[in-house]
Each structure stands twice: as structure tokens, then as C-alpha cells.
Amino acid sequence: MRVAFPYMGEIRLVIAPILRELGADPVVPPPPDRESRTLGVQLAPELMCIPFKLTLGNMVRSLEMGADTLVYVSGSWSCRFGYYGRLQAEILREMGYRFRLLELRHDNIRGIVQEVVAMSGGRPTRALVRAGRALRLGWHKSVALETAQRCFRAALPVAARPESCRRLLGRSLSAVEATDTPGGLSRLCRRFEQEFAELPHNGRKRMPRVMLVGESYCTIEPFVNFDVIRRLGELGVAVEPFLTEHRWLGFHGFRIGAGELRRAKRAARRYWRYCVGGEDENSLGHLLIAAERGYDGVVHVHPFGCMPGTVVQPALEAASRDCGLGYMSLSLDEHTGTAGLATRLEAFAAMLERRARQVGT
Amino acid sequence: MIRVGICRALDGVRFLPDWEAFLAGLGCEIVVSEPTTRQMVESGVRQAPAELCLPVKACVGHALALQGRVDRFLLPRIVCRRTKEGPLFGCPKAIALPDMLRALIPDLPPIVEFLLDEREGDESRAYRELAEALGLRKRRAGGWPTEKWPREKRPSGPAAEWSHRQVTEQAGPGLAGRARTPVVAVVGHDYLIDDDELSLGLLPRLAAAGAQVARGTPEASGAAAILPGFEPDWLFERELIRQALGWASRLEVDGLLLATSFACGTSAVTYDIIRRAVRRHRPELAVLELVFDEQTGPAGLTTRIESFVELLRMRR
């Protein structure tokens, strides 16, 4: 079974080894780029959100690479995300591709278990052992990935040479991909901490801190958010995303971090009483948590035309006004020009810098 | 006496008769905003986030127009209805509307919600909570609308199951009678198509161009029913899919007009499903999709409608 799955950010580093351990043959297309965007924009409905277009483009590429099963997380809810799998399957089938659609949904746990057992030749005990091993490896990979990214985010604003910091992240991610033992991955974590700490320092003592909130795909996938974490980091702003690959997997797979989500929900209650999807309530809650923790600003990212992402904007603005946080909203689509964005980010960074100085004195 | 304001916008209008009866029973005065005016649209467009769809912006305008004339705002949150086909959900923007309005217009009168989430409680609970939010706990004569009009007495059929107003075939007699009059099935949210300010008078323009308009859910489908690839679990969108494919399966219908507003999130999915199903089963059917936004010049629209109708007439 050659399995492909839509992914964001570096999540493939975790999911592909899990699938391999389970006995499947994962097909991983390259991270979203111009080609997948062009494909997706051509095939998808015009007013669909950008995560749909990019993942569709990537699915075409994985089918070209020989995938025969497409796995989607789906559900029925008012956000369009729940229908990605079925709509993309319609589009791809009309193009003449033949494949099997496997939907991971809450009401189909049984089917998923059967699928996993079938991958182990129909032997439940073997499947159980393999699943245990796969999850253990996946967990370690995910932790190593999170460590590398965390160290990178902390080191970048104070790095004397940002490009060497970037290169180190690239090397670290390759190391995560290449290491397949839990022990090796734990050693990698310790190495990352050390290596990033050893990078030459630019002498900056205080830097503005920003929380990145918004829709999950836009928060996690650097291709679509113009790598906003790196861009702001190079401008001397420390960015903390409210959601990372590790947290996304941990929460959606095992409800890890449910306490924090509850906290965010409670905090958001003043402004937002009903969650409609797209991490609206969660973003709002994290904006308020950021204010509590002394952050200087918040960047909100959402796909253009995202239903929850659009309606939550006035509430985010009101909340950031009430808390005195700097606020910037980025609406993302297939637009590729970076000049306008660079200007906005520079102005935002300068504004935060000034604000941080004022608060400091 | 509490004056309760209701916006004549979005899918909430479907509940209007029930709300009026209910609130009158509780001794409230009901103020419904006037039909959409240009001024309402403009004030809504100024206030609301740019990326919202036109009907939601217009709804903001309705709220602004009512401001100062009412003590409370009544806004619906149609989150989920249990139907025979399983739980179906409302549009996210409409669900989030009360929260958005609160953040957008801070000095708005307090908003009371008609929160209908049938995963958690039925309609009578929604009414009870509404009465409590208004500070009126006492049950008045007349009872809850749901008791007055129980489910089993309502008109049946997939559309009527979730909407109070039965949307039925509105094509009129002699659909295929006049040989030279093309029949155009118009599909789209009622709050857009029936609002001549938002849709720039789409229906009168179609009539003026010489088309006969078919609307609503057809009572019977054609010889071979057209099935969609899949149906998303959106309450009102399922209705649109049934309407569109129902009309598309009837041979006397010459053209299908899909109307939507720019940045309408649900129609991006729904109309794609409709177009694919039509292409598979009745490829010769002409389909026109019109996207409305706050642009006000009707000339382009008239040209497109006229050429569409003319094309259908030539084919006939």
C-alpha cells in the first residue's frame, strides 16, 4: 500500500516513519512549492482557501509518484477543512487518477484499526506491537523536531549571522529525518540545545516578543506564511507560534495540551462564545494569554476567505486593543510577491521595538 | 416593554414568523429592520472586515440601522439541526455573527441569541433560553412555537424538515408551454437572491431579459435523478444542492444560474459539487455562475444575463 497524506510544515518527518513502522509505504511529495501551488490553483474552486489548493497540488504530485491510497483527516463540521478529502478525491478522480480514499474520522475508528491490522497481514498482535513501536518512534521524532525548531526560534533574533542559524536548522531537520532510533533522537535533542547555544551572539539583550496565532496550516507551513517566523526573527523579533507540528499532532492524536486549550477557551470567553473552527477561539485565547505573559504583539495569519478566520478578526482587534498589544493580521492566498509583506513586517517590528522600549522604561 | 430588534438578513429571516409570534406572546415589541437599502450596505461595508461576504456585511448594516431604536438585538446562531440525514450545520460566519458584532460595534444594545444546537438541546430549549436572556421567564399563553407547530405537523420533505418556510416549486404553470421562452433555474441563498439591493435585482432582470425563472426545490426530479459526488453537512447548502440538481435533471430547464457572493466559503464547495454532477450527467445544460460583491454598477450584470438568456433562446 503506497500511502500519501496532505501535510504542513515538517509534519512529514513524523508521519512518514510512523506509516513505515506500521507496514505501509509512505509516498512523500516535496514540501509545497511553486509547482504544487500552480497545480492546486488550476484545479481547485477559485474561492477555496489556500491550504486546500496547496494540499491538492501536493496530492497530484504524490499520485504521480505512485501513491495508491490517500489518507485525510476529515469530519463533518461547519469549517471547510472537514470536506477537503472528499472534494479533492472528486477533483482527482475526474482527472482520471485511480486511488483509494481513506478518511480518518471520529466515527470510523474501527475502520482505521482494521486498516492498520490489514497492513500487518491481518495479524492483530503483530499490528499492536508495530503500532506501539511506530507511536514510540513518532513521539521521539516529534519531540526532536520541536526541540530543533524551539532552539532555532530562540537563537535566530540574537544570532550574529542569521544564515548560519538557518543552515543549522536545515542540518538539524535532516538529522531528525535520518535518525530512526528513540535513543538517537534523544541524543539529537541534547545536541541541538548545545549547537544552537554555541552560535555567535549579536549582543542584543532585549527583544520584542510576538505570538503567532491563526489558522493551523497558515501558522505551521512556512511556504504559505512567507516564513514569517524567520523573517521577523531576522528583524530581531522573537516569534512564538501558538501551534507547532508537535503540538498539533499531540493534541489531535492524543489530546496532549488539552489543559492549555481549556485555558485558552476560558480566556477567550469574554470575546468569543462559540468556536466555529479554524482555531478561532484558540487564537483569541492565546492572544489573551500572550498579553498575560508580557508579549509585545500578536500576528494573526489566516487563509484568504477562511470563514472562521475572517469573522474572528474584529474580536482579535478588540482584544488586542483592550490589552494594549501590537496586532497585525495577514491574509494569505496564492499571492507570491514578498516586497509588500517585507515592508509591513519591518514597520511592525520597528513599532514593537519602540513599544518594548517604552514598556521597559 | 422591551423592544427587540431583528435584522432582516441572512438565514435568520426564515425564523421570523416564529420569533414574531413568540416574542409577541412574551409581550415584547418587535422591530424588524427595513428591507436592505444602499445606505445599509455602505455602512456595513465600512464597518465589517473586508473579506466578509456581502450578505454578512449587509447584516452589519442592518444592525447599525436598528441601533438606537431597540433595547435588545436578537440574532440567531443556527449551529446544528438533527435531521433524518444526521446532524447538519450552519454557516460558520452566521454562527459567529453575534460575537463578531459585539466586537465590531461596542456600543450596540445587548445581543440575545437564539442558539439552536440540537446536539445539545432541541428547539424548545433555544426558545426557553431566549426568554431567559430577555429576562422573561414566565411562560405565556400560546406556548413555544415548537409546541404550536410540532415537527410532525410541518410540511415534510428534505427542505421543509429544517426550514419553517416551505420552499417549494415556484415555477408556475406551463413551464414548458411557451416554446421561445427559456427556463432558467436560479439557485442561491434566498437572502441574496430575494434581496434586490444585494443581487442588483437579479430576478427582475432575468424576467426583463425574457426568461422564465424556476426557483425553490422542484417537486419532482426529471426522468433520471442527478446525484452529487458527496454532500457536505451544511444545512442550507444541502438544500441548494438538491434544488440545483433537481432542476438540472428536468429537461424543460434550459439553464442553471448559480448565484453567490464573493468570499462565500460554503458555495466554493457546494457549487463545485453541483457543476461536477451536472457535467457528469447533463453536460449540455448551460450553467452560469454569478458572484456578487459590493460593486453597484448593474450594466455588466445586465449584459451577462441578457447574453445568457439569448444563448438559451437560440438553443431552444
UniProtKB/TrEMBL annotation, chain A:
Signal peptide: none annotated. Pfam families: HGD-D. Gene3D superfamilies: 3.40.50.11900. It comes from the Bacteria. InterPro entries: Dehydratase_Activator_Redct, FldB/FldC_alpha/beta. This is CoA protein activase. It comes from candidate division WOR-3 bacterium.
